Structure prediction request, 633 residues.
Amino acid sequence: MFSETAKKNADACRFCWMCRHVCPVANSTGNEAHTPRAKGLLTSLVERGSDYTPDMAEIMYQCCLCGACSNDCVTGFEPPVFIREARTHAVVNGYVPPSVGPLTESVLENGNIYGKPASEKMSALKDVIGNLPQRADTLLFVGDAAAFRSPETALAVMGLLKKAGANYTVLPDEPSSGAEIADLLGYTEDVRQRAFGTAKALSDTGASVIVTLDPKDAEIFMQHYPKWGAAFSERVETATSCIAALVRSGKLKIRPVQNRKNVTYQDPCRLARDLNEEAPARELIRATGMNLQEMFLHGKLTKCCGGEILREYSPQTASLIAQDRLFDAKRTGASAMVTSCPGCTTSFRKCGDRSGELEVLDLFCLLDECS
Amino acid sequence: MRFVACIKQVPQSQESGIDSVTLSVRREGVPWMISPADEHALEEALHLRERFGGEVQALCMGVKSAVEMLRYALSLGVDRVALVSDPMFVGSDTYVTARVLSRAIEKMGGADVILCGRRSFDGETGQTAPQLAIHQNMICVTNVIRVEANLRGSLKITRLADEGEELIEAEPPILLAVCEGINHVRLPGIGSMRRAKDVPVQVLNGEILGFRPDEVGIKGSPTRVVQVERVEFGRSVRVRIEKDARTGAENILERVFRASEG
Prediction:
């Protein structure tokens, strides 16, 4: 049932069990079956003749695909590889858990997990987009999470680009990148076909640089589109590295804030682990004059916020994960946590710190206020 | 139009070893994959079906476990699959393999276009495809790197030649032996995977194909594998360092210069 790559990954484990210590889902639920190793064992069982059951499928969806297990594994055990395939088989066999079903239907029909038609995606931004040129040197790819859940982040990035004098545009009918479909259904032809459509829409703008606000989109553009043949000649940049370069070049001036605080920074999983990007966001935080306190696990070792997708079908687990991470943040003595990913911002704000001791600051909104 | 893609199951690593009895590559119990060039041939067949319409069949001659690979082909969108498998075929060389495949294609209803990889990942002979074209009485174009269809139904084929590229225009029936990298291989789709569950894998054995045991396998193959040797690459060079490091270094440099000049 599983591909040879998935089988190899499941069988690579040497039972050191260290992945269970870094898995945000298993740590929050305390359920041994939710550990990456357990999911690997289930994969091995199926490969050795056991039936793949709806119960197993349910477990395979108890993962936010943050990649902490792969990052911590010395044997190259990569659970996201077989977990994605297990999800594909869950969809094919009709074993998708009831809580996930509406999301998979929505993602196949609309391209997003929010149950809204694609035509509504950019509605919160349409006034600003209406004033932008149709073609420009730079294209800002907003992404589903920012468009549907935190449009203020997208508006802040657009404000920053404008202040820096960048010749940029945003697609009024921006398609989805396919990253969310890939997380829910695995890397299937359905995702690849979407990639072709999106790559064409991006190329048609004539932009030479595509700035992505959501690290998930940047990761799929940079690491998957080229190997699927859906490559475009435009350079892809993350919003953090683009804004940091504008500040460095002097095109964008950042004034230090009046009320200097101790803040900590949440590295988005895909930005830090998959794209190896840690420095630009920190550079930008320092530019605001804030005092940066690092959490115990940061950079490539970062802990997930719970994830946008997991929160949609398993809100309690996602909330526990977010609260666990907010606790890490508070331990630094910081009064605010800065985020640079629309998914993280929404997760922490929704499941936020109930004591009111820790504020969640969106990096781009913060920079917009300081420029 | 009827497209048949011949795909071979090969071990993922060339380290899988040689069977000491048959002196052929060990295929059971090792991680497998579709031979890379064959995977591109399959993709090209699916591409051509999108342009011309018709049906794609995938055909594999191999061990029973190759059913799994054919199921994978179905999940990519192939319409029908058949496995040619029989203990009597064990040890078949390229001559016999081409004959068996040819008869299997006839059994499956024939083909307008046959697509093969230019060579397999394990044996690397590149002989089966041209021999299959002979048995099918077809034009054979090898080392194909691009296929374009025109409205008249003919194909514009670009092939790699010793020096540069050759452009050929030809009409089916034709056999194309394609290079790796001719296209980007698709992924299994949810819809195709659902459909694939209900498509049977047809198994064609020697009896169905009308072969006698002495016509196929080791007995029927003119090729004899007498010995298989493991060739170790690399050579050892020993340079004597005389007296001190400087003299030794000068000695090495002198040899390098002499070798590069000569």
Observations:
- Chain A touches chain B at residues 4, 7-8, 88, 91-92, 108, 185, 187-193, 227-229 (CB under 8 Å).
